[in-house]
Amino acid sequence: MFISTALPRTRRADPWRDTDVIDARAPRFNQTVVATVSLAAVALGWWPLLGLVAAQLAIGLRFGRRYCFPCVAYFELIQPRFGEGPLEDSRPPRFANQIGVTFLGAATVAYGLGATGLGATLGLIVTALAALAATTGFCAGCEMYKVGARLRGIRTHLLDRIDAGDVDGLADRAIVEFTHPLCTGCQTLARDLHAAGERVLTIDISRRPELARKYGIAVVPVAVRVGQDGSVTERIAG
Question: By three-state DSSP, how is residue 150 classified?
Fold first, then answer.
């Protein structure tokens, strides 16, 4: 597979190397492809297409974007012409793709075993959710990931406090933001907080991944207000 190494000047993130973030338009393009092919598979009775879509998603998840045909099409053909969109954490859409693999795989098995009704139902569920994400930007799988990440953080109480040794200049009423230098939402949040007169201390999870693990940061941005002793008094974002 040929992949161009030339990057347009408008790109801040290399799509093949900076895999912890993704152009927010790329998942929507991928969902468009998934919705279109899945609908055709169910409507026309070409159910093996569901298995092909599941296999393509699984290969991309396992081996990377270079082996994901919709990803290659977006980053090599579409993004260079229309420019880079907002950058976001890549983990939620990856989780959504995992759900897609599960449902499409189950639909393929159901068709193969003769359970046509079940296979069609599962295929249409994928079609509907993918179409919703493609047209509105609302990704049910992504939201499931974020809710799950939030619940895990609450359950383990990893963000009850921030240790003073983990961030320089920790002070009473300061806001600690877990961020990534290529995350558009992180930069927007930081600008808004600074504009509101807040003192913002940042932890770059690309440089300090051990702190992301320590505090259970599964998606960025996350921002919390801390007291003088480092105890978290308010969750601002994430």
Answer: helix
